[in-house]
From TrEMBL:
Alphabetical list of Pfam families matching this protein: AAA_31 (PF13614)
AAA domain boundaries: 3-183
Enzymatic reactions: ATP + H2O = ADP + phosphate + H(+)
Domain of life: Bacteria
Species name: Blautia argi
Protein name per the record: Sporulation initiation inhibitor protein Soj
Family: Belongs to the ParA family.
CDD domains reported in the protein's UniProt record: ParAB_family
Self-association state and partner proteins as the record states: Dimerizes in the presence of ATP but not ADP; ATP-binding is required for double-stranded (ds)DNA-binding. Interacts with DnaA.
């Protein structure tokens, strides 16, 4: 049975999509069967895999969730795009925003994504969900459907502060809706090792949360190569195979695999 990991943080721009993509492709490079789910109406994960006009895609996560709400049949592989880097993608676009509003009147609305993901678990080793930057119903759906949460945190003061709210939401979901949910770990992203500030933040996160939540040993360095890779619709391994970000995501992949043992 596949493992489901939500990549979540309500703060925008902390490298959720970048991490989902490069951890996902990293796992695929280790021979794992991987499904990436874009659960953000901005469609950044979808776009950074080269599907540059997400709003033109006909079948997305919103379509699938709407089918579940309407109790309609979902064909095998419906909406799934097969990327050349050996990962599958269920894309997202702006329709997901409209769906989130519609869902306010739906019975058991927190369980819609879980219903879909549970049917996909037997087909994949890993299912990674790129959450949107909010703690609304779509993120709750992702947390309910997941086994663990990976929390990317940009090495800066404010995002570190916002973590408490996310941790509280995860605890509530665990208590009321998904008892087996755990926090996989905090991943420090966009770390600029040239500055002492970044090092201070890293040690501060370790001091504040290290006793309660595990923090990935590997951190992701800041590099302009990341934006270049997503503009090309490729993973960092393809765009800059010997660069520091590529190595960092490869090491993170190993750490995630080690955690399974
Ligand atoms: N290690 C890095 N070094 C430099 N830039 C990075 C790095 N990781 C991500 N970025 C850039 O930061 C921006 C935000 O990244 P990304 O889209 O992955 O974040 P996000 O948390 O998914 O954003 P949102 O909350 O808007 O969905 C992008 O422009 C991306 O190219």
């Amino acid at each position: 049975m596949g493992k489901v990991i939500s990549v979540a943080n309500q703060k925008g721009g902390v490298a959720k999509s970048t991490t989902t993509l490069n951890l996902g492709v990293g796992l695929a490079r280790q021979g794992k069967k991987v499904l990436l789910i874009d659960a953000d109406p901005q469609g950044s994960l979808t776009a950074s895999l080269g599907y540059v006009e997400p709003d033109d895609i006909g079948t997305t996560l919103a379509t699938i969730m709407m089918n579940i709400i309407n109790d309609e049949e979902i064909a095998e592989d419906e909406g799934i795009l097969h990327h050349e880097e050996q990962v599958d993608l269920l894309p997202a676009n702006i329709e997901l925003s409209a769906l989130e509003v519609t869902m306010s009147n739906v019975m058991s609305r927190e369980l819609i994504m879980k219903e879909y993901i549970d049917t996909m678990r037997s087909r994949y080793d890993y299912i990674l969900i790129d959450c949107m930057p909010s703690l609304g119903m779509m993120t709750i759906n992702a947390l309910v459907a997941s086994d663990t949460v990976l929390i990317p945190v940009q090495a800066a003061y404010l995002p570190v502060k916002g973590l408490q709210q996310l941790i509280r939401t995860i605890s509530m979901v665990k208590k009321r809706l998904n008892r087996k949910l755990t926090i996989h770990g905090i991943l420090l992203t966009m770390v600029d090792f040239r500055t002492n500030y970044a090092k201070d933040i890293a040690s501060r996160v370790r001091e504040t949360y290290g006793s309660k939540i595990s923090i990935f040993e590997n951190v992701i360095p800041l590099s302009v190569k990341v934006a270049e890779a997503s503009a090309e619709g490729k993973s960092i391994y393809c765009h800059c195979p010997n660069g520091k970000v590529s190595m960092a995501y490869e090491n993170l992949t190993q750490e995630v695999l080690e955690n399974e043992k």
